[in-house]
Amino acid sequence: MALARKPTRSSPRSSTSEAGRPVDLRLLAPAAAAWACAAIAVQGGRWIGLVLGLGVVAGSLGLLRRSWTVCAVGVAMAGAAGVAGMWAAALNHSLPAEWAREKALIEVTAEVTSDARQWQARGYQPAAAVLAIELRQVTAHGEVWQGRLPAQLRASGEMAAQLDQPVGAAITFLAIGRPPDAADRSVGTLVLRSEITSVESPGPVARLANSFRAGLRQAMAHSPPEQAGLVPSLVVGDISHLPEQVKADFKTTGLTHLTAVSGTNLTLMLVFTLGLARQAGVRGWWLRGMAVLVAAAFIVVCRAEPSVLRAAAMGLIAMAATGLAHDRARGLRALSLAVLVLVLIDPWLSRSWGFALSVTATAGILWWAGRWQTAMRGWAPGWLAESVAVPLAAQLATQPIVTALSGQVSVVGLAANLFAGPFVGPVTILGLAAGLISLVSPGLAGPVGWAAGWCVQPIVLVAHLAASAPAAAWSWRSTPATLVLLGVACVICAALVMPRVLPRRWLVAAFAVLLVIGAFRAPPQAGWPGEWVVIACDVGQGGAQLIRAAPGRAILVDTGPDPDALRACLASAGVSRISVLVLTHSHADHVGGLPAIAGEIPVEMVLVGSDAPAASDLEGLPETTRTSAGDTIELGPLRWTTIAAGPSARASPLADGSSAGEDAGQNDASIVGLIETGELRILVTGDLEVAGQQAVVSSGADIRADVLVVPHHGSPRQDPEFIDAVHARIALVQVGENNGYGHPASSALTMLRGSGATVFRTDQQGAIAVSADGGSAVTQR
Q: Which whole-number Å values give the CA distances from 273 to 109, 381, 385, in the listed order?
């Protein structure tokens, strides 16, 4: 007689897989709690007490109710607060931290703990570098402190090159202290104020790692620049010689993760090496031992920093989705445990975007990739199923975070990763071999490096080809609402769409066709008014305005300092042709973005005033046209009128210091132009200062406008009569976030609002678009 079994309810602490096996999620809550609480507690002060108190309350409630999951959450919260509190006490209450807050001049002896991050001079921004160091001895105010605490050393201009120091070396220098950034595990930021002197050479392990990296770069010396820069990037995350164009194309195509020390690199390297080992008959514990050895080598050559250890942990866990441990339950438990341990070891990881990307990518691979591979193997070979499923799962899981950082959704990312992925393993192995051989025989390392270079060439070609698609990356507004919408869309796609598409060959083909179509035609920018008239681009501390002339065509006034920011603005607005390019004056924060235009987008006319940019900046553009007051240009319904285009006869006093480091004569030589659309009048002003504004008012020109691009980024040097004469409804202030100039000045904002204008700022609201009737403005934040 068969006995009927009484149905039981599913435990809330687990979920059930499609095979009927429970997926244990009990570690998920403590890991998430530790992550969130660590991110709060590293701010120090009362936040530590708040998190610690909540943890104690949660733990106590869990004990009273015998709910071990709640108890574990409380313990994780209290642990995160405790670790963060100990770090905060060590960092914030030390003498070096006190001196940094005082901005004291200090003498430092420190050990170099990582390679310097270098930024080349760009526009008005000088070259800069940041070096991670560990303080050993600090002297200030006649006192001497000794110990070991982390800090950041920064330098700019000509001094930036000095930060190229070997890891492990002890150095001494003078610096000015500054408080640390909130997201840095550091006692402070030290600004270099002297020559750096080396007082001790690196130890044997650091010297070996340095020799490996230098040997790898030398092994690539005879390869083309793109190959020579990319191989070290893929092998050890060394992007010091990576060409800017390759960086830009990798960003557009979603391949940037390959050039960072990430879990993806280790995962692909393990897949390749262990695949070869299987072919050679290696099985069982020998295979696991080889995985450990490969991971150990990865950590040594990439520097044993927290970010590298994090990447190694995530890479090993991700192997659960690539065929070594095809078990979601074990993989999710391991991921949760890794998150919990890592944020307790280093609470500052909780505020790292790289950490968030690693965790979400690994979770996506674990949760979706295995089932998707199984679904595709009904019609596709295993290697193709894996090549599609893994990057697709990672992209869907990380897309909201990537978009929050970049403001883009890469349409070609999946295809680029699909075609580039098979070459990453061979490149990594050959690069690793070249570095190892270089330690013994640099001459023999050359041919191996040459082979690695030609293995990486297909990746370069994939990046260039995919990035050249007209709509390779779609712009997406990075607001909380739009990011939540994107996240929901990604989850729906992964949970409902992909399980129905991937098992059917013809649906996969249709999906691929849709991606190809999407790469050649982007949809309208979400949230932009369909008939926008003017857009103040978000280009940082600089100016760039688009005035719509026709579908896909615009007048562009200035280019801002950053070519990439200008490219993003043009793409989001759907502008593919510049009818008139107006360069108000020659300052780099108004012309530094010219490389995004010259040779890339058709330009029909270039207008300049008395302060024209240098000829070298204008290469690839049509011959310039000098404009002067009274000149007009008709562009269909648009009419451009030059109000002023030369230096003012009046002096611009600089007694208030607001224009320190700048030439007020050049500012007052800015082109001032009025654009009439039939419905709106827009006044663009460059960096016009008081004397220039007074000269415009005295000229008697009709400068009434609905939209005013506020002169000189809202500096305090504004003339009340000029502001009143314009009497704009909308005032657009283009200004960089946390800029060092104090822009926009509170006096300028008060003056603008007093005239009846509604003020919009790019530092707070991102790019700003004004509708055709001037009745609304849409922002990107």
A: 42, 20, 19
